[in-house]
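Re: the request from the purification team.
They wanted to know what the chain is likely to look like in 3D before they choose a buffer screen. I agreed to run a prediction and write the result into the notebook, where they can find it.
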Amino acid sequence: MKKLLPIFALCLVSSAQAETLWSDFSLTYLNGSHYQVGDNERQVGTFEYVTGTTWGGAFLFVDRLESSNGDTETYGEFSPKFSLHKFKWEEQDISLAAAGTIEFGEGFTHYLYGLSIGTKPRFFNFLNAAFYRRNNDSGKDNWQMTLTWATPFELGETKWMFDGFLDWASAIPEQNQSATMNWTSQVKWDLAPYMGLKAPLYIGFEYAYWNSKFGIEGVDERNASFLLKWHF
């Protein structure tokens, strides 16, 4: 709890001085049958909130996982970032920010802190890279790199989105924990124009390509899940 207080205080101070520029809420339903570590069939409900402000922005998600064998799990992440500097490089707008993430689940809380670089290349809504030091709740600390992106595209008159993230975390040899890489992406078709909705309503699939899941050597997940996502 003491580790959380400085981050919480900084968020309160920044929020008090911030102007919200934009925000978005969404709910996602996933159904997959090739999960690793635990039961292989699961349904996942996800709540997400993202906002951009004059001081930076924040992203929050909470997953509720329910397995076919009756197991349940709740996991979430809160990721604020605080703008440090903006500049141009080869006609690209680049933003540099102090970034952090709090990972919380049943029986653990991890704290990540570092720097984030944000860009918006052609064809992308955004392309971000973050570099973190991980302060793990139990055991040794390690390093993490995270890439996030969103690319809209059209097929005929239909509108689609390709987005996702890639997490890489370094090994912790003292705990026999391997380096891990999780590349999870979503391809989804926006049904909103056909239903008279202003915000996107997506249907598609999510694919997780995860090597050494949770740092367990030899446990590699290749999982495609049905996806339904509603923004509001």
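For the purification team: The mean pLDDT is 93.
Please add any questions underneath this entry.
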